[in-house]
């Protein structure tokens, strides 16, 4: 899957390289890093051995990073978010890894090799973490390095049939006025983002950038369009499907019955969740029939696996979402080599970034900020 075109970029917390898939062809990866052996193996299967350096980001030295990059991408871990306190991550060994990335960029700035653009991706919860102090600390830190910093909340549902809101912090050494709006605008500058910016210290807030972007074309794919329906598909037994439906609330069961009466084929995405009802913990199956999958998650247990409920008149069928189907929901091409283990494949995808979201950002914001001539994807 190697392509040798585009401006050089560095990829940190690279996972399986889904961001790389979206950044090509505007950008060309010259260095990648991840600490997870399974994800490193997946990255190398997809792209070869040349760029990937396995290990802890804290152990990296600027000497190992080639040349001067146009872009540095970092999908830093979302667990244990704690950015506002100790910058060396002592209190948050996972999300504290952001400060390992920060240290590298700081050293590149001192060496005169700072990337033109930084792109950081994380869960939207970063906006409210520690009352917004973590988000403010991140913006302040990048601002101190001489970058103009802005952010966008993007839901993968704009591009693919999966509900997956994520926060993208975009920082540029040179912010083109044409890409800077006078103020926030929907759908990318959500109320949560506006609230987080309003809580920032005055000096940081005044320098915050509201990136100007056009709304993407309307998505036309639905969940059912990306699903397999042939040999090799493993279905649950009738008893398992009946149990799944029995775990729904009365309102949800009534909705399923109403769909059955229409005679149409409908597909719902289902998660099992623990709810507290009348003071007791109850496992509930919660389905959505809006044409979207729920947000893909890493498979920590059976309840975290996304299920599919097929309503076809009097027939009800259910099964687990397959790894290749999950890959399609992330916009990953069919030729991308997924891990053979279903758990490993779903872990890689659940921790990844939606490829079409990155591609749209690359073409409409990152490439212009980095001075890269826009070209159509191959």
The CATH C-level class name of the largest domain: Alpha Beta
The class by helix and strand makeup works out as: alpha/beta
SSE arrangement, N to C = EHEHEEHEHEEEHHEHHEEEEHHH
What is the residue-mean pLDDT, rounded to a whole number? 89
Work out the radius of gyration: 22 Å
CATH superfamily of the largest domain: Vaccinia Virus protein VP39
With helices defined by DSSP (H or I, 4 residues minimum), what is the helix count? 11
Give the overall form: globular
- % residues in beta strands: 15-25%
CATH level 3 topology of the largest domain: Rossmann fold
How many structural domains?
A: 2
Strand order of the largest sheet: 3-2-1-4-5-7-6
Strand runs, count:
13
CATH architecture of the largest domain: 3-Layer(aba) Sandwich
Helix fraction? 25-40%
- Low-pLDDT segments, ≥5 res: 82-95, 374-378
First-last Cα distance: 12 Å
Largest sheet data: 7 strands, mixed
What would the keywords be for this entry?
single chain, 378 residues, alpha/beta, Rossmann fold, 2 domains, seven-stranded mixed β-sheet, four-stranded antiparallel β-sheet, 11 helices, 13 strands, 22% strand
How would you portray this structure in words?
By secondary structure, this protein is of the alpha/beta class. The protein has two domains: 7-217 and 352-370, 3-Layer(aba) Sandwich (Rossmann fold), CATH 3.40.50.150; 229-321, no CATH class. It has eleven helices and 13 strands. The strands form three sheets. The protein has a seven-stranded mixed β-sheet with strand order 3-2-1-4-5-7-6. A four-stranded antiparallel β-sheet has the order 11-10-12-13. It has a two-stranded antiparallel ribbon with strand order 8-9. A hairpin with a 2-residue loop joins β12 and β13 (315-320). It is globular and about 65 Å long. The termini are close together. 42% of the residues are buried.
């Amino acid at each position: 899957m190697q392509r040798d075109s585009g401006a050089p970029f560095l990829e940190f917390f690279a996972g399986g390289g889904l961001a790389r898939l979206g950044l090509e062809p505007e950008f060309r990866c010259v260095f990648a890093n991840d600490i997870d052996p399974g994800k490193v193996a997946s990255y190398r299967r997809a792209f070869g051995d040349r760029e990937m350096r396995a290990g802890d980001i804290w152990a990296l030295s600027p000497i190992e990073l080639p040349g001067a990059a146009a872009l540095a991408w970092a999908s830093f871990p979302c667990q244990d978010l704690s950015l506002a306190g100790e910058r060396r991550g002592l209190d948050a060994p996972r999300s504290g890894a952001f400060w390992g990335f920060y240290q590298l960029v700081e050293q590149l700035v001192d060496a005169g090799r700072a990337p033109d653009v930084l792109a950081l991706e994380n869960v939207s919860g970063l906006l409210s973490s520690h009352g917004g102090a973590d988000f403010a600390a991140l913006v302040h830190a990048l601002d101190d390095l001489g970058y103009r910093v802005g952010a966008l909340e993007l839901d993968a549902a704009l591009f693919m049939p999966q509900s997956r809101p994520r926060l993208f912090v975009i920082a540029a050494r040179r912010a083109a006025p044409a890409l800077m709006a006078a103020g926030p605008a929907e759908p990318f500058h959500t109320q949560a983002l506006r609230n987080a910016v309003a809580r920032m210290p005055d000096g940081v807030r005044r320098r915050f950038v509201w990136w100007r972007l056009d709304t993407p074309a309307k998505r036309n794919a639905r969940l059912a369009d990306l699903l397999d329906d042939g040999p090799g598909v493993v279905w649950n037994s009738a008893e398992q499907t009946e149990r799944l439906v029995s775990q729904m609330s009365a309102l949800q069961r009534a909705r399923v019955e109403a769909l059955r009466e229409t005679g149409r084929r409908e597909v719902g995405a289902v998660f099992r969740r623990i709810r507290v009802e009348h003071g007791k913990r109850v496992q509930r199956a919660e389905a959505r029939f809006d044409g979207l999958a729920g947000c893909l998650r890493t498979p920590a247990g059976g309840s975290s696996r996304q299920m599919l409920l097929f309503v076809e008149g009097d027939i009800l069928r259910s099964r687990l979402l397959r790894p290749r189907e999950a890959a399609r929901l992330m916009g990953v091409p069919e030729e991308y080599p997924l891990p053979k283990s279903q758990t490993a494949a779903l872990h890689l995808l659940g921790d990844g970034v939606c490829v079409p979201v990155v591609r749209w950002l690359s073409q409409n914001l990152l490439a212009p900020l980095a001075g890269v001539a826009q070209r159509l994807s191959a």
